[in-house]
Amino acid sequence: MNGQENEGTGTLRYRLVRSGRRTLGLEIREGELIVRAPYRATRQEIDRMLREKRSWIDSHLAKSRQKIREAAAIRPLNREELYALGQKAVEYIPGRVRYYAGLLGVQPRKITIRNQRTRWGSCSSQGNLNFNVLLMLTPPEAIDSVVVHELCHLKEMNHSERFYREVLSVFPDYYRWHDWLKEHQTELMARLG
Ligand SMILES: [Zn+2]
To answer: Could you tell me the pTM of the whole model?
Structure first.
């Protein structure tokens, strides 16, 4: 279902998704505004919320669209560049893994470097760690934040409070670099073409 709301200053386009939820909600994804509404929500209720949240919507939409433009403007890495980046990752990341594994008292099994468009790292239930080659385009602290995150999964296979306590115990700046990666994810992942 698609909806459109007309307002004094201009037209706000959005996608309307009705469901069994009980409250109205807004989401901005890939430059698009999504309104989530209960089945019984009236058009007036939706319009009122959109008016109330208009400045939030405008600023977040602008940010999201800017990100898309930036991603489109970035040239993808060619094969040689990607290969060189992989070499760098193979030389650098295992050392960081060993360092933090020592601090945490854990023993990872295999370390694999991957070209991935969706995630920075992962940890399998067998204790194998995967890291995104694109981490080599980020600051060392951002790399450490992913290394520590995945290593801590060897202790806690979840994202519980206990998990984050482990993370922060060896990398107190974790949230700052986690946010940095989130903020730059779109433009960086776009370099895989
Ligand atoms: Zn995790």
So the answer is: 0.66
